[in-house]
Design a protein that fits this description.
Structural class: alpha/beta
CATH topology of the largest domain: TIM Barrel
Strand order of the largest sheet: 10-16-15-12-13
Amino acid sequence: MRTTLSARACNQYADTPAYLDILDQESRAIITRLRPHPSLVLWCGGNELFNAWSRNTEQDLHMRLVARNCFDLDPSRPYIHTSPIMGIGHGGYWFEQSAWSDSNVFRLYPQASRSAYCEFGVPATPSAAALHQFLPPAELFPPRRGTSWQTHFAFNAWDGDPDSWLMPTIIEKYLGTPTDLDDLVRKSQLLQCVGYQAIFEEVRRQKPRAAIAMNWCLNEPWPCAANNSLVAWPAEPKPALAAVAASLRPVLASARLPRFDWEPGASFMAELFLLNDAPRAIGPLEVVVHLHAGSSTRLGAWTCPGSAAGTNCAGPVMRGVVPPCTGETFELIVEVIGQPELSSRYTLAFSRTK
């Protein structure tokens, strides 16, 4: 857990006596209250305080004050002035970063080289039942701008992309046009599950260069029609919460995939890894890889030698042919023989373009 003190974010703060007095009181109270927590990893003086729009520096009095209080009250824990700083990254925030690079999560994160990924996300709607609670029946489907969908942040919620946070063009590109509300929810939540799985496992593959992966955000306290949260209002887990939990198992067989959508009959490839964050060595494993679309096709096997405690093991590249299209999606199954708790499954899409 990273704790950002006094909810200081994205602004330039004046070094007035009144503000410094309040900051001193609040930061000391926060540090004293939270320092007993075993999950607390480091202190952070604020969010995006060194960026172009905030223009603070480490010599500002308010930055020095918070640093002093962290040292005085909890000297054993690390402290950074703000996030991001050099080496730390914020973003992206969608399954496909169309506003910046036209690159989805399968391409963006393997190309990144960061010491920490401290703010990223993939949006999705909450359940259809939740949407029924706060959207008028006449506006439920299809979602449109200028309706309650926009009021509840499905559109124009952030100037980074006017489609935020629903991103309907991305849903349609990869999974087709939703036919009704239930289909919209299913497709939206599927992309969120797939996206978060791809990001978290990729960051783990980059260990020890990358040490932190923190999605934005965990829970949504307001009835939001779409956003990056794993838990929707009112305290309703989205399917992505379980997907992230599976990606963060201490030990798992993992596959790095170059893309999400595949042409039937095209050449397929997946690079295998054993991810081990357990405090113990993992012995030799037999890993078998299949593609499944109605029926299963075996791609091959890997005799993994195992790994030392807290150490990943890179495996071979498995190759094959994308199966014939039998629907919207197919699966890659990475099976650890005799230890199903270490196996992984990946949902992939048949390409919708010729």
